[in-house]
Protein 1
Amino acid sequence: MNVSIIKEDKAVAIDGVVLNFDFALDDNIWAVQWNGTSGHIEYIDINTPNEDIDSITQFQSILDAYSIEKSRLEVEAAEAEAEAEAEAEAEVTEGGV
């Protein structure tokens, strides 16, 4: 699983799928990059070097929030599609189309 967390953009990408939502991250962290086995933390303060990490678990709450947001968006899209189909069917039934 490849992960990018970019604080300023409020963006989290998992395996290339980017979602934007609010999440909490330490004030000095600019971004987190993870390639599935290792990664690094990028800091806002240019005097703080990138920190190599060998686990993404300290950011699990953000990954969990990503999953929740992704599910919410999928449900929202399915509901919108069902509503559009129902409206189209109603128009046909009423002789509108």
Protein 2
Amino acid sequence: MTKKRAHHGHGWTPSDLKKLRSLVARETPRAEIAKALGRTVAAVYQRIVTEQLSPQQSRGAGRRTR
């Protein structure tokens, strides 16, 4: 049986968004942000894009280069 995330299916609260902005500003990797917020990395990335925060500030697991 898989474990459900704490916020599965729930919206983002103002305190969630405040914490997200703070972590992105500190250039915290997305995986660590997701863990701190109890959300998936994909959900965190999508909210960063939606809130128009710079995804470059929040480093991912790795960047693809040619």
